[in-house]
Amino acid sequence: MLLSVKDIHKTYTTADGPFAVLRGIDLRLAAGETLALTGESGSGKSTLLHLIGGLDTPDQGQIMIDGQDIAALDDNGRAALRRGTVGVVFQQFNLIPSLKVADNIAFQARLADQHDPDWVATLADRMGLTEQLNKYPEQLSGGQQQRVAIARTLAPKPRLVLADEPTGNLDEATAATVMDLMLELVAETGAGLLMVTHSEALAGRMARRLHLRAGRLA
Amino acid sequence: MSDKMVQGVVGRIIALVFLCFLPLQVAAQGFAGLGTDAEGFAIPTPDPSFDFPADHGPHPEYRIEWWYLTANLTAEDGTPYGLQWTLFRSALAPEAGEGWAAPQLWMGHAAVTTPDQHHVSERLARGGIGQAGVTAEPFSAWIDDWVLRGDWDTLQMTASGADFSYDMALTAQGPLIFHGQDGYSVKSAAGQASYYYSQPFFDIAGVLDLPQGDVAVTGTAWLDREWSSQPLSDDQTGWDWFSLSFDDGHKLMGFRLQQTDGQNYTSATWITPDGRTTAFPDGAFSAEPLITHQTVGGEVPIRWQVRLPARDVDVTVSAMNPDAWMTTSIPYWEGPVTVIGSHMGMGYLEMTGYE
Amino acid sequence: MTRATLQALLSHWWRNPLQLFTLLAGLALATALWSGVQAVNAEARASYDAAAAALGEGQYDRLLRRDGQPMDQATYITLRRAGWLVSPVVQGRLDGVRIIGIDPLTAPGDIGPVAIGEDADVVGFLTGAGQLFANAETARRLTGQQVIITPEAAPGTAITDIGVAQRLLGKQGQIDSLIIAPAQPRSQPPLENIAPQLLRRAAQGGSDIGRLTDSFHLNLTAFGLLSFAVGIFIVHGAIGLAFEQRRPVVRTLRALGLPLRRLIVLMGAELMLFALFAGAIGVALGYGIAALLLPDVAATLRGLYGADVSGTLQLRPAWWLSGLSIALGGTALAASGALFKLSKMPLLAAAQPRALAMAAGRNAVIQGAGAAVLLAVAGVLMFTAQGLIGGFTLLAALLIGAALALPLILDRVLAACSGLARSVTAQWFWSDTRQQLPGLSLALMALLLAMAANVGVSTMVSSFRLTFVEFLDQRLSSELYVSTEDATQSQKLTAFAAPRVDAILPIQFADTEIAGQPTEVYGARDNHTYRDNWIFLQNSAAPWDTTFGGQTILINEQLARRGGLGIGDQVQLQDQVFMIAGIYGDYGNPIGQAVISEAQFAGLYPGITAQRFGLRLDPDQVPDFVAALEAEAGIPATQTVDQARIKAISLQVFERTFTVTTALNILTLAVAGFAILMSLLTLATMRVPQLAPAWAMGMTRGQLGRLELLRAVLLAVLTAFVALPLGLALAWALLAVVNVAAFGWELPMYLFPGDYARLGIFALLAAALAALWPARRLARTPPADLLKVFSNER
Fold first, then answer.
1. Where residue B166 sits, what CATH number does that domain have?
2. For the segment B152-181, what is each residue's pLDDT rounded down to a tens digit?
3. pLDDT tens figures, A74-107
4. How many domains does chain B have?
5. What subunits touch chain C, counting only 3 or more CB pairs under 8 A?
6. A75: nearest CB among C5, C260, C354
7. A31-54+72-209 has which fold?
8. C148-153 — which CB contacts under 8 Å span 24+ positions?
9. Residue spans per domain, chain A
């Protein structure tokens, strides 16, 4: 099993006191499988994604990726996880504005010491970014930027791709194109895909879907 | 401008100036000036005829000269002491001169050695202004407040330092003796030589003023006079000089000049109690180091096997205080010794050229 | 991983060269200011240290003749032969160069010449060949002498053998002073028995020159410290800006899997590299500043104190080192805070503003407590501080306390204004300004320190000038001063002038000691000039009557303070006892001074005759008189100085002092302005979201821009109001505590409202200039950017 989440709890401290975002989540995801995670704003779906991506740590519970409990990892371990095993696509793209498109795409692979120029070139080509390689992110449209971000995430060939509202900032047509490309490439690399979205259409394209409500899977 | 730099410079001036002060220190790298041509300076010649008291005075036409007194003393409680009073003259040019520009420089060394202490003082002065000098008649040798004066039958002697002073009276009990060939003392196979005579028969008495208090002492003293312009040859790096007084009244002066090739040049004078002398050429006298000791300065032999087979002398000479290192601008070892073996006695040892 | 990360980090600067420039410029400016002041200080200090070292001044006790005349060489021999380890020194001037003759054989180990280089000849040095050792500048003035160039030699000084010096100076057989070696023999007769005519002068804590010029350097050091503080603020600002701007990138890098530790190490290394680079530029800049200021500083020191300071600057490792360590240390200090914050920054963008606000509140309490404690300490020290350490502690407590208190004071003032505001715009303006305060407070503190320092130092220096000018009027009351070469010429002068002038006032003095203090005793001729012009700090009834009558003595403030003397106390000069009848201000004089009547002076110092004379005559007659003096008495005009010229020269010296202080004033303000600029730039990135609502509600971008400018000026004005009393307190501490400790006299404090106003305007200009660009940028923010604020809002 690629991903197995057991009894995850997470509580935040807010001005109004503690707020339990996640209250016992269990889910599993196999390699090559796609899963949509839907829910209202504040239902905790992004938090869950962040916990799986090692961006945050759960208060309780176990997250196993490839048989490794990532809740037990320190900062270095989680960073290594993010570099190689898990790739995150953010809603805000989070490109590095001072690097050209080519460098942005290659960046994560280089961080992970898994830079494969042919694969990066393939990705750029498939994403239709060949013409944009020498531009800076600010010179690209939103859809192009997100394609750069997806290419960057896939460059080190992660086993698990996490996507947080990847098309949330894109118009519908662009979103559909970007989505097609992403699903296609994820399928080709055989990675598992877990996507947070509140778009029914998008969720429908996944193999499975889970709905979060008030910190529990419905 | 850093003080250290200035200090270094003054040190260098002094060192450079007093290089000429001969065998006192002859570093292995060969001290400039010692082996060079004695240009303009007079050179000792064989068959000297001395003229006293004039020759007790200075000879400015020679490059170097000294009045060198050492004494073995005993306090009333039996504690042995050693004492040194030395005045060196070094000429920058073969003339007496007057005022600050006079080319004669003077250096005084005084020391008192106890079994566990060694007090040293040094003075430097220019000739020509009255701060230091020697007059033959009446005889007086002085630098600052240090004085050695009298008629050579009796002498008065004072010296002082930051932690000691002394005031001594000397009385001669025998004649002057002349080393080498009637006072022409050869210092190397190549023929370098000096004029060299001594008064080894002084009785001495006086008071040592030491940090622990005044000490009344008596003993015997040995006064050397030597002058030259070029006493060492190029390949000589230092010397070991012994003046030994045996209990039977005989005395022995012997020196060993160290050569760069590891060989030595030795010379000795055997002195009978009534002042008759026999000079021994190179090889007759030998001195072999037995034990060395690391002083604040150099590492020096502090026990020697000294032999003069021609007079059946085979003795062990040991430093009374191994730490008698002279921390002067030109450092060397100088201190009292005890003698055991075929002959018993005491004496003084000077060692230069050690590091 | 490292290469990719470095590329990502460094590419930021490549894409934002302006930010890189601000960072480097901030670091470089701070370093420059610091190292410039240090360089001037170090250079001057090294110069007179060399001069003092050459004489062994300060380190060793010395023997001088009581009457100040040279002693016979025989005295030296007598002392040596009595067991006194002393070393002779002869000195004098030749072609304007101070010639010092020493005897290297008897000089204590650490005085004396000079490097004996390859070209030096020891035998020649000792046997009168006439070698002099001097630096290249001095060597050029010594024509016809054999000079060996020694860069380390004290400026304006040549060292040579005593025999040569005696010959060059015409002092054959004479010795000016004897240095007493620290280690002396055990048995030594007392000095009175051997040379009763000699006086033992104790070693000074520092050299005469050193102690004096220290006071001037104190000003510069105070400036240096303040510039250091200002510099640290700037470095802090620059680093804060750099981190603020890259916060999102840092998050992204971490999200992509860069370990935090690696990131911090790399960012730290990057900053250190920049600091090294900017520090080097800063040191070079500082060198430039110093090189520009140094001729003035050198002239000031020479003029004020007669200290020879080389007018050329040498690059000294010491201030390279201190400059670079300020850059690196300041960066490390500022960066460690920023990096710490970075390490605590949550990886996810969901920051917790509430927690931050609470932390800020706690900080304010700590800061307020710190300020209160420091100001309380300063308050106590104002009444109790003694000596230089106390004075500087007072200054530090005052400045740091005030700087810490500033944001709190401003916050209260802004809150009050906000409460009073009627219009909505005004209300928004005040509260928005208040909200910005934390971001600007570092820069405002820098401005506060810069302004306070300027007020303080200007007040001190101007007070000094005012006092000194009055003092010059009092002391330079004769219309013409004539120097004579010898007694014959003095007689000629007296004979020629007697029928032509109102009064001849001989100026004659002898070096001696009173109450253990080195003192120059003057013999004054009974004349109304003194009675009319001299102002006493304290005096008994009719001090001049009793002094001219021979019963009393007048002393300067330095002697009174150091010797613990007051009116009515008795002092002794040889066998004569005098009562002190007056204490007068004697500004700029390093040592004690006393005045007795001419008759008493002649009795005590029969060997000394006046070689300077003050002549009272109609000022209009001066040119004719000078011409006649040359024609009829053979005394050339070069030996005369008219009063106007002396005053002009003295004032010129002061003007130079002010050139330096003014230059530093402007520089400090400029640096403070730069700090404001950087803070505003930092804030600008956060400003858009704050301003967007105001824009959305109907304010134009132009209006917003103008308000931004107004805000900066307003904050500067408020800071100026705090800076003024702080600066005055600083000045008071400098004049009444530090100056007394350094100079030995207290200066009256004068206020210069005009100067302060000008300074305030400068400060406002600096603030306005600094705010201009950010405000313009704001006014031109594309509406789209403002709109984004709303679309991006979570």
1. 2.40.370.10
2. 999 999 999 989 999 999 999 999 999 999
3. 888 888 888 888 988 888 888 888 889 999 999 9
4. 1
5. A, B
6. C260
7. Rossmann fold (3.40.50)
8. C148/C114, C148/C117, C148/C119, C148/C120, C150/C113, C150/C114, C150/C115, C150/C117, C152/B1, C152/B5, C152/C50, C152/C114, C152/C115, C153/B1, C153/C50, C153/C54, C153/C114
9. 31-54+72-209
